[in-house]
Design a protein that fits this description.
This protein is α/β, with parallel strands linked by helices and 387 residues long. Helices cover 42% and strands 15% of the residues. It has 16 helices and 14 strands. It has a six-stranded parallel beta sheet, sandwiched between helices. It has a six-stranded parallel beta sheet with strand order 11-10-9-12-13-14, with helices on both faces. Strand 13, helix 11 and strand 14 form a beta-alpha-beta unit. Helix 4 runs antiparallel to helix 5 and helix 10 crosses helix 13.
């Protein structure tokens, strides 16, 4: 295997979006570049015309970037292509890879069909699962967050699955931030129950907010459900979105992190909370069930209140010790090993051929010839063939 590789990642989720998918990809890219690999990222924020995702205006999609994506792929000439999301850019890259016979991998970050169902209940979940399944099964390997998600997707007809966990930045999220320089929740009654993430219906946040718990509840983040929840739960504190060291303090100063989501495939915030020394409470679903049992760093239960109260008695030292099992360096190594590369000289030969065909297709002679053919057929009353 070569010491360095040209790796292309295509994603519909990237900066300025703030979520677990973006953090995962950002950390993976940084780790790969740190190991000497040449990594290029194609994302909606690369100057493309974008449209807001229906019901979620914070997420912007680039539906008209096909020609640019094609040019950028052929110009870069990657040895490995990873398609991280199923959105417009991911679909474009997939179609080009299939056309060229170029191997590629994908990753399954979220239960997309369940997200669609939560927002559009009239759409059968079997339809969206078929679309997502066809997308991923056409690749060389689908990287999935946890072993339980591998089984979950295999039961639904997905193939070529491989577990790819998530990591945590132990420098940013660490127990030393607790009450340093003071208690960030000093004006709130303890215990402090905190939730961090996108405030949206699929995150099931109301399951947490409706619990009868002592102390104070805090929900950190932004999203389409924020204003609704503020009105419905005036006693809950909503500090807004927090980032970096500021976010790390909110984790560290809390008493329990509550993760009510049933649609996440991992839950990066779970290990960020543990790294900060704060135990986690959640449901026994993919993500929590892969991270929490046996860790002494949290509790899972179908009764979320029971899980919360049990987590309150967990050791903060055990949380930190368990989080140390996750590092971005190790995560990037797994990602690298799962790629299905096409090494030189085969890759170079492929991209030389593709570039040559692209130049021919865009040459004045070729374009003029195609235009004259169309005019001639129109004049003869015949349909214009597809070029």
């Amino acid at each position: 295997m070569p010491k360095s590789m040209k790796i292309l990642i295509i994603t519909d989720a990237w900066h300025p979006q703030v979520n677990g998918v973006v953090r995962t990809l950002t950390q993976t890219v940084e780790a790969l570049r740190g190991k000497g690999h040449v990594v290029e990222v194609i994302a909606p924020s690369d100057g493309y015309f974008t449209l807001p995702l229906p019901t979620y205006s914070d997420i912007r999609l680039a539906p008209f970037a096909f020609n640019s994506v094609k040019k950028r792929i052929t110009t870069f000439g990657p040895e490995a292509i990873h398609i991280a999301t199923e959105g417009p850019l991911g679909q474009m890259a997939r179609s080009l890879c299939l056309r060229w016979g170029m191997p590629f991998t994908t990753s399954y970050h979220t239960k997309f069909p369940e997200y669609i169902k939560a927002r559009f209940p009239f759409i059968p979940i079997s339809w969206t699962y078929k679309l997502v399944r066809d997308f991923h099964n056409s690749g060389g390997r689908t990287m999935v967050t946890t072993p339980s998600m591998v089984e979950f997707l295999r039961e639904r007809g997905f193939t070529k699955l491989a577990p790819w966990a998530r990591g945590v930045d132990m420098e940013t999220f660490n127990p030393g931030r607790r009450f340093s320089p003071d208690d960030i929740y000093k004006n709130l009654e303890r215990p402090i129950w905190v939730n961090v993430g996108r405030i949206a219906v699929e995150k099931n946040i109301e399951a947490f907010l409706s619990l009868d718990l002592p102390g104070s509840k805090v929900v950190i983040g932004d999203g389409p459900q924020l204003s609704q929840l503020k009105k419905k739960y005036p006693e809950v504190t909503f500090p807004g979105p927090k980032f970096g060291e500021d976010l790390a303090r909110y984790f560290a100063d809390a008493d329990v992190f509550v993760f009510p989501s049933k649609t996440d495939t991992f839950g990066l915030v779970i290990i960020e909370s543990m790294a900060s020394g704060t135990p986690v409470a959640g449901y026994p679903v993919s993500g929590p069930i892969d991270i929490i049992p046996g860790s002494r760093a949290g509790s899972i239960n179908e009764d979320l209140k029971t899980a919360c109260l049990e987590a309150l008695d967990m050791s903060r030292h055990a949380c930190v010790a368990h989080a140390q099992n996750y590092s971005w360096d190790a995560v990037s190594e797994v990602f690298y090993d799962y790629l299905t590369p096409e090494y030189t000289p085969l890759a170079r030969k492929r991209w030389r051929r593709v570039r040559r065909l692209a130049r021919i297709a865009s040459s004045p002679y070729h374009l003029t010839k195609q235009t004259l053919r169309r005019i001639w057929r129109i004049l003869r009353g015949k349909s214009v063939p597809k070029s």
